[in-house]
Amino acid sequence: VIDHGVPEHSVVTTCAYCGVGCSFEAQMKGDKLVRMVPYKGGDANHGHSCVKGRFAFGYATHKDRIREPMIRDSIDQAWRPVAWDEAIAFAARRLRETQAKYGRESIGGITSSRCTNEETYLVQKLIRAAFGNNNTDTCARVCHSPTGYGLKTTLGESAGTQTFDSVMKADTILVIGANPTDAHPVFASQMKRRLRQGATLIVADPRRIDLLKTPHGGSSLHLPLKPGTNVALVNSLAHVVVTEGLEDADFIAKRCDSDAYQRWRDFIQEPQNSPEALETVTGVPAVQVREAARAYANAANGAIYYGLGVTEHSQGSTMVMGIANLAMATGNIGREGVGVNPLRGQNNVQGSCDMGSFPHELPGYQHVADPAVREKFETLWHTTIDDEPGLRIPNMFDAAIAGTFKGLYVQGEDIAQSDPNTQHVEAALTALDCLIVQDIFLNETAKYAHVLLPGSTFLEKNGTFTNAERRINRVRKVMPPVAGKEDWEVTQALSNALGYPMHYTHPSEIMDEIAQLTPTFTGVSYARLEERGSIQWPCNDAFPDGTPTMHALDFPIGKGNFAITEYVATEERASRRYPLLLTTGRILSQYNVGAQTRRTDNSAWHAEDVLEIHPSDAEVRGLRDGDWLGISSRVGRTVLRCRVSDRMAPGVVYTTFHHPGSGANVITTDNSDWATNCPEYKVTAVQVERVSQP
Ligand code: SF4
């Protein structure tokens, strides 16, 4: 913990870790941050916090921060520190040379769910206006892109439906593929309070997560499904709802498309979707599935919360639609205590998607193929927008290896460590003629870069983050950027050097432009955020005070759309050669690839990544706690220490990915969601053997 003495003043800002979006008072002495104190007026956290937001801010002043821009002609050369002007001119020249040689579509960029809405908006604007293509994507591609697709298809909006506070009215809480205690701790505490009051808990997860240990007044049920069988499980839950007459007929008749509903009903009631028929697929006893379906459907209020255990699968989008189907069929949409609630891992996953980072959508999920949408943006931006969707991140990698994609601008994302199948990513990055990395540290991706532009932490800039409940919170600058520029200023400088002028003087002007172009943001401004503290979008003429609960009266698409969700088994299966299924997750004290949390002063937090294995699987292999294990998949091999744990089901192993050396993504494959290419991090068939040393 950094403590510089008695604070002199404080600034209210927003945590830059998870999607709960807790508000903090940054207590300052001069320009030194004394401590972070959870802000009682915070609409998402009401004065609560977890260890990360409270204590893990030392990375902002860590010696590893990049303090000046650097360039080099090729990746085998040493970095050369230069002034900002030279670095920006070098980057712009290389991008232009790359386009001149390989064509307009040969470059693109990646936005970050760690950065602010305003920064993200500017990067995608730069790509569309200055690069002249739609090759923009976000790191949300590898986490919640199926949420965007699945919820937009079924409910008409790519966002969760509730406030966090809504959980206090839930009678049955269904948690699927999420581990809130470690990944969303402040919301997990709220959920636990509701459980102690007597709500019923159902957890669908291959692991026995800690939430199941919460002492509470109601009952709890664990559905330990096999990795990769989510869709089979949700179909069997819906089958019980339909065949046992547990539907909300009134809600379906009034709020849902009748043809789509009838088609779905015919499909879901087929015998192959019954819990009994799917028992061997999911591994969950049919009697438990029936019990869970009844507990959810019969509750006065049933709420679903899900995480990356839903989205990071080859059927991630199908599963999101299956969850929405289940909520609509039981009438659990449109009031407090119910809903479909994606728990976002990073602080601004929602915002990075809202701000037009996707290659097919402009801000506000407005499709590039729509001429009226393009005309609106073209008029304000004074440019022409391509009507063809651009490349997604995995397509960029493939095109780089094929030699047609040659230039990439990456803001705040360590793709070399966080994307799956590291060997493939490294081959793509090595093939680039121009890689520009804008980051706060010299990350793994920077090893392949030609230009390094220092990034700024959340403490060094103004802006907004949008949390998992669509709440737009202010981020306020408490100290100057270590390298002299906020991230949005860097993007603006690059755009100007490329010949597309940008002249913003403050992020509030960027938000004003976002509000002009984004129908769900027309009522959002910094002045209103100052007045209200936070705003949940949609905030516009129809919802001038914002929208805590979505879909209360109707859906943006009119009627709710039931989607057919046929279960298709993943290609990644246990076999004689790779008999165990690996799944991945996080621990409380670390965050993603650990770039920030590993750079805190508390060494007790720096637990290594380990492989958790069930006692029976350990026994047949003669493994004990602390043994070194070689873990092989069909794409790679890594070494981790063994931890024997009965949290795992037999046949399933688990690890985290917080340390660069552990290489979890060396073994994950490039299987991905059929609709969005979100990687299938959650299922990798592996072999495990004891080795003498790493
Ligand atoms: Fe930050 Fe999330 Fe912890 Fe809140 S729960 S303090 S947003 S990491």
TrEMBL record:
Residues 8-64 form the 4Fe-4S Mo/W bis-MGD-type domain. GO terms for cellular component: membrane; oxidoreductase complex. GO terms for biological process: formate metabolic process; respiratory electron transport chain. Keywords: 2Fe-2S, 4Fe-4S, Iron, Iron-sulfur, Metal-binding, Oxidoreductase, Repeat. GO terms for molecular function: 2 iron, 2 sulfur cluster binding; 4 iron, 4 sulfur cluster binding; formate dehydrogenase (NAD+) activity; metal ion binding; molybdopterin cofactor binding; NADH dehydrogenase activity. It comes from the Bacteria. Belongs to the complex I 75 kDa subunit family. This is Formate dehydrogenase subunit alpha. It comes from Salinicola corii. The lineage of its organism: Bacteria, Pseudomonadati, Pseudomonadota, Gammaproteobacteria, Oceanospirillales. The chain holds residues 235 to 928 of 954 of the full protein.
